[in-house]
Design a protein that fits this description.
Helix content is 48%, strand content 10%. By secondary structure, it is an alpha/beta fold. The radius of gyration is 23 Å and the shape is globular.
Length: 517
Amino acid sequence: MLTSVAIKTSLAFAELQQLSTIIETKMGLHFPPERFKDLETGFSLAARDMGFKDSSECLSNISAKELCHEEIEVFAKYLTTGETYFFREPERLVEFESRILSQLIEQRKDSGRKIRIWCAGCSSGEEPYTIAILLKKLIPDIEKWDITILATDINPKVLQRARKGVYGSWSFRGNSNSFKLEFFKRLSNNQFELNGEIKRMVTFSHLNLANNKFAEQFARGNAVDIIFCRNVLMYFGEISIKRIVNDFYNCLTDSGWLIVSLVESNLVNQSAFTPVKYGQSNFYRKDNIRVKNNRNVQIETFQKGPLLKEISKPTKFYQEISTKALLSNKVIVPQLSTKEPSGEENSIYNKGRLSFEQGDYIRTVHLLSNLQSGSSSGSSDFSANPDLMLLLARSYANLGQLESAAEYIRKAVCLNKSNKIYHFYHGVIMQEIGKINEAIKLYKKAIYLDPDYAIVHFTLGLLMFNRGEQRESKKYLENTLEILHKREKDEIVDDSEGISAWQLRAIVLSLRNKIAI
């Protein structure tokens, strides 16, 4: 529980550099100078939670010793966030189900009936539960099998949510109602609880991927067959990524598989793994007998699996790398653009921002809606603050209430029509609603306000690619590359939620190579 102690949050630049090094060394989280504000905000909240009088005192304390398990948990609570949903990247899951999982089941049917799968960076649990549902569907006599699904994350708060197995409608986006009826029980407030049989198939555990000894836990007979690590590597530094990928290789059985997200494929291509291309997606296989320099990608076709062909038909290549998918894994906590009121109202606003950081969007909406309503009489400037509207819009979007999200983002734009960020998020929400032409106009307006707005050029390039407009797609992707060429390698791209210039450049190059013209 947060203490009531007042805390000084400001750190000198040298202190932030020291803190960034400590956090990356001990937790693997990469905070370059462009993200020092996020680091400082999260660290100050953690320091308050731990009872220090100010951030500097907390920094001095952790600099002099190793972080204990409890301290890492507190920092993870405030420095990491995550969001996922059931059957994410459906086209790739079709390929995984039909070409990897089904074959593994067939191989093990007469040789031990044992399968071990690890979800690293599982967040709130939708991914491991998706895998459990796939296995349940594919193996009629699953009770006779030795199935292990281990799901780990550095953030203890999301693990608590995962173990409960209770989800809102936003976790089911893209899935049919029959899926919810088959595997979930409806609760109050439009919440759904996963049935106990599926929940019992998954074991959740705290794990820090920055701990370079984690591979030892999977040695000596405990190796796993498949590792899922999607939308996790992108938040690590380049050195940490290479080390983690190498450790994953050592954790797998011979011919085991590593599965990363589409946007992370280029982070694995130069590793010891052999890339195997099914359909339009790369998977990565541990192949101890291959010749080191023979890295030819294997091309194979696929058929729809028995479950996924009912739940979600395959989408166009890269459709799942929508702006939403790219940005939903880490929140932006907006700062007040007007002078902050003092007293209780400011305290309520800060509590709302904290709830948003922690993924408690219902509480965020409750706090900020009351604050906005109470300030409409003119008692404070919150009612005219566009950042308040943006935070409400993003909270409603994460709850799946897109019409309410659209209402509040429109208010933000009306209050400040010259702010590129509001137009960008307005476009994101319009795109989610399906109003693509309106979203395109809003993205172009954001570019008009800032011609070097790289993430919007990339978003338009991706959107045009998915619409089959390859010439337009190539134009916006080339614009993105030209802008990124001016940036430092580790510089964080504005409003990309933590993706560095070199990571986004790799993504853009991969996508551009798919364009024929």
